[in-house]
Amino acid sequence: MDGAAEVVIHVSPEGCDDASGDADDPLRSPSAGLARCRAHARSGGAHARILVFAPGRYDLAEPLELDARDSGMCLRGSGAVLVGGRRITAWRPDGRFQAADLPGVREGRWDFRQLWVNGAARPRARLPKEGVLEHACEFKQPWLSTTGGGFQPPPTVELRSRLIYPEGQLPAGLMPGNAEVVVYHSWDESQARVTSHDPATRTLLLDPPLTYPPGAFGVKGYVVLNVREGMLQPGQWYLDRVAGRVVYWPLPGERMEECVVEAPVLMTLLRVHGSADSPVCGVTVRGLGFDLTNVALRSPGWGAKPYAGAVEFEHADACRLEGLAVSRAGGQGLRLEAVSHSRVADCDINRCGANGIYFSGRPGNEILDNHVWDVGLVYPSAVGIQTQRFRRSLIARNEVHDTPYCGITAADWKGTEPCENVIEQNRVWNTMKELGDGGPIYVTGERRSLIRGNVLHNSAGRAGYSMGLYLDEQTEDCLCEDNLVYAIGRYPLHLHMTRRNVIRNSIFICEPGNTISFARSTDTLVQGCIFYGPSSGIVVREPGGAHLDDNLFWGGVPGVREFVRGQGELPALKGGFLASDPGFADAAKCDFRLREGSPAVRVGFKALDFSQAGRRRKEQPGSARSIPQAGHDGQSQCPGRCGGATSDSTPA
């Protein structure tokens, strides 16, 4: 390429900021490289600017920030990782624990909720040791649905700022300033700091106020974090804000002088921000790594949305994020707001405090071939991939697993235009590990969207309250076809307050106690599907809003068991159904291919190749690092048969 049309600036951890920026004379800091690129742009001698990162670790003192001046720029590297944390040294004994003084903690300039020792997350001090406590608060006001306005009248700030606990449950010396609480609701949780503690009335005052009052939705679980009384086993830690230090209980054999102990400082590493009037256009970020960021304390609300991202794009168009490795983000891995015609592809995103990808967009975006796992480490209402206000966009061939709440969500609450999104060929499993009322794929407010060819499985939910394919309030005129759903806690298929949706040519495996539900929905067409529950029968809830035409049901003998709330007959099944064993190749091993001669063809079912679901490509040559293989328990593995094959990025 003509040198007048392109400028390439190189940076390296071994470089010098007084250097030329050539490949053999690189700059040292990314900010100096950005400034050099801008200087070339001002001179008018370069139309394309490329900032190349040499392999190595780049410890940032502040985020690297691009704006509309940097439109058309490319940042790329292989083996380069931008880091936003600090190493903690100078440990000293504190009884059985070890402690290190931290400047800025007592003054409130540095606060963090994650500690990493030799690259592994260490759990915070916690009461109780396992499970949850039950508080003594009552809040019996009925929830009117989100569409119906939630709680009416809205709960007061006072109700949302106080928690009362039973006699003897918490120690009288529980220290405000250090203590934090997690109060569970239904589909999310609230988190707050304890500002005062009155042992006589067993009352904690909390700030910021909780999203909902304790006890809402009939849920009473809570935990207390970051107190010395919660140091109950080796590996735990707490941040002593009162004394300005961090306290850690080493694992057996750990010698602190030999450990690499890190804590996050920066909220964001790369920020690309335009404005509504002057968006950033055509920025590409390829092959870089982003590691170790911080997160603020605030209640997350549904989907853990209000947190910074390790990488942030706002008011941007035609941008590309490709082959990135994002790990140990305190908030979102990637956060994109008001972004259009852009692509997130081939990224590995894991161990995030909130969502892996949060994407609030405009038309024409793509989220393709990403591997997102182990999110919600700080805020369990987090989602693997969360989209808001998408239009004519594609979410395809992603692998999402190990999430405390949903795997993939799409929401467009107040939209009036058709969404026309496509969510296809994703493989989502091991979701709903902490919360309820969600599932591997959850959509709400979507209109005229297509959900096709996805494999969704192993999602238990709190107390079994999990859905598989979940269409919630205001979802209308969507087509769901060619999906496979199995090993779900309660509802393999659940529609709630929806209209005119079609469920077609899909397989729903019903475990004992499972229900197919059409709650408060109208004009649902279910056609050519297989519902298979040989050990439990099949329950159909509120079928009056559905037309079940030409489906195969198999629930053992007698075949189909109908349960209808407040209704005697099941008119939706009058038109015709087939009660017969579909003839799966080996359902016990999750091989749901159909044997030759399957009776499913009599209801119009067309054979599917579920091996096409999931990420199709491994890391690209320019990516920052390979997918970590350690740290997964047996439940984290995709069982893998699912129609005969797994995708090539399933962890070994």
Characterise this structure.
- The chain is mainly beta.
- Strands 1-2-5-24-27-30-33-36-39-42-45-48-51-54 form a 14-stranded parallel beta sheet, with helices on one face.
- The radius of gyration is 26 Å and the shape is globular.
- The two termini are 42 Å apart.
- The model is unreliable at 561-572 and 619-652 (pLDDT under 50).
List keywords for this structure.
mainly beta; 14-stranded parallel beta sheet; 1 helix; about 35% strand; disordered C terminus
* Strand-residue proportion: 35-45%
Average pLDDT confidence is 88
The shape is globular
Distance between the termini: 42 Å
Helix/strand structural class: mainly beta
| Low-confidence parts | 561-572, 619-652
Largest beta sheet: what is the strand line-up?
Answer: 1-2-5-24-27-30-33-36-39-42-45-48-51-54
- The number of strands is 58
Supply Rg.
Answer: 26 Å
Q: How many H/I helices? A: 1
Gist of the model:
By secondary structure, this protein is an all-beta fold. The chain contains one helix and 58 strands. A 14-stranded parallel beta sheet has the order 1-2-5-24-27-30-33-36-39-42-45-48-51-54, with helices on one face. A 14-stranded parallel beta sheet has the order 3-6-25-28-31-34-37-40-43-46-49-52-55-56, with no helix packed on it. Strands 4, 22, 23, 26, 29, 32, 35, 38, 41, 44, 47, 50 and 53 form a 13-stranded parallel beta sheet that branches.
